[in-house]
# Entry
Amino acid sequence: MNSPTLLPNKTLLWKECRNGWVFFSLLFVYITFVSSYTMLTELSRYKSALADGWIYPIMVTGDLLAFHRPELGLFFTLLVVVMAAVMIGQERDQGTFGLLLAMPYSRREVLYHKFLLGLGIIVVAFGVNALVMSGLYWGHPGVPIPFEVADIWAWALRNMVVLAFVFAFTVLISTLSGTSVGNGILSMIFLFFPIGVTGLIVANLELWQVHHYEITENLLHIGTLLTVPSYIIDRNIIHSYPLAYMYTVLILITLGTYQLAQYLFARNPMEHNGEVLMFSGFEWFFKLGVAVCFALLVVPIGTYRSGLEPAVGVIYYLVAGGIFWVLVTLLIKWRRKA
Amino acid sequence: MIEITDLTKTFGASQVLDGVSLEVQRGRVYGLVGPNGAGKTTLIKIMMGFLLPTGGRVFIDGQDVHQHPRIKSQVGYVADYQNYYPGFSVNDMVRFYRGTFENWNEERFAELRRVFDLPDKRTFKNFSKGMRTQLALLLNLSLMPNVLILDEPTSGLDPVLRRQVLGMLVDEVARNGTTVFVATHNLNELERTCDQIGMIHQGRILFDENLEDMKQKVRKIQVAFADGLPPELAKRPDVLKVEQQGRVYGIVMRENSAEMLAELKKHDPLLLETIDMSLEDIFIYRMGGLGYEFTDIITQ
Amino acid sequence: MFRIDQRNSTPIYQQLVQEVKEAILKGLLRPSERLPSVRELAVQLTINPNTIQKSYQELERQGIIENLQGKGTFVAEHYRPTKDRERLSILQDDLRRILVDAHYLGLNEDELLRMVEQLLTELKMGEDNR
# Structure
């Protein structure tokens, strides 16, 4: 194979832009709205309040700015997941891979350009907004803004690094799953898997009336640590470790995820586009995972009111697991092509 | 030129391609024929690098298509159905092709653009099959291909368009000596345009020959006897098939057989003559001779 | 001008040779007149250009057309087809076919010549032509 060049192909980039501009705009607009735009509105409110003779409590009520609102981290994650899921999934759904991959581009090139654009839009969205906000900050020296320029850039950097991982991870999942919807759902599930599973385990332990504070605390901490989006949802988790170390690890993991995605994409059996799983070898693992997770989820919810005895409980878990196993099998079969 | 060596493809439990090997010399027109489900489209998708083979390799102009995708900048491809990006317009696709294929010829494109009546800016959502095929030809001929691969290019088209497509193909060969590989159902078109014919059935190439040679190798003898055909003659190894209508027998022979004629003459026939066979007949009998029952080729 | 009938058992290239000859016979093509190029004809008839090429080569071999380098293919300048001459050529082709069939029927030369003589006697042509 020719030595891969890092220089992007203009035409391929243009094509990705032309196809993805809706999501790119959505992401950019939303991030701008909750950061630069909010800051601008706050500043103008402060100034007009000042003109009227009273002090507007700038960005104190509710901490309007993005980096004080945990749920926004969730939205960012969601937007990036959808963007990545669609970038790969739509080509499968619409059958356009049949055209693209028959062209003189290698699969590596194709995926590389999708990455470039996805990561590019993330960097641009946060970078541009950080610049604008820094400008706004320096442009209003007298105003008691409750954060520094350093905070702005810390926020931007944190989001860029975390969302880059989210993007890479979703692309990786997209090489394993055959539909946009599947890509999106599976990515969200696996991104939040660690905290989800530890939460479920803790809930089930409580159900079985096992109370051990230290264990549950540790479990939850590990779960949060392994759930990368939590770093932008609750930034305290990332601050309990040296930042340079955390970011380096994250970036390395992101690169590794990228390479793994390239590896899998090169081997993607395109005949399975539109099916739940691209590689049928994963079927057992997938079904088992779904059965276990959903059983852990459903049983505590279902037996909430009534108490639970160990013997009966085991049966509940097995039954729930069995039901979900069957459901997933049916789903896979439904999506499978003759 | 195209070279395929021992290509196999399994979809789960079924073996769609089972050791396909063929070669197309530069400047020749190769027609791949076979019933639905024989593996034509799968073969072509593997040739274009979209599907990965289970085994075997595909070489175009000496390079393995899967390892050196750059070679596809010399290859035009018209799929059985063109899945263009729904949000794109003709202009967008042209821009995409222009930037992708290094040999794109703007003059050729302008010349061809005049021939077709395609809207510049409308998106593909409502494009009919005919329009998509026209665009595919427009794009793929403008990139000045060395090799042109087509999957049922005329199927589903009205007669006017069909003629246009064939005319353009033939013109391309005459003008540029392009190597052409076309999968088709249509024996009429095959006979007119192809030099070489390959028949694929259940994932295997049953025969692969020059059209001229094929037609020479099978002959039909029409003979009538007052008292019926002597049974030992019907059982000869070079007899592919015997049809009977009343006293008249149609005997299909594997090769020109002066021997057979001499034998028949000995039995004092009422009627004895050799006649040429249509391509469809040749196919049916060749496959019968190979042990297959074949009932379904479409001619129009 | 030229028509190819696929249902006819004669090979396409041979049909084309016949068509060209007939066109010349009918006066549709005159000596030194330009014939359509291989490419033009291939597109017109939607036929493989190699087939057209083969016909043109055969016609050239028979001295009916000539290829002037760089200028195109023309009806031979000195080819003066009289109706008889053209008919003779067609007759020769027919006769060739009959002889081939006769061979496959197992007729040898003597039997064939005897057949011809018999027919000639029947038609009283032999006498008239002496």
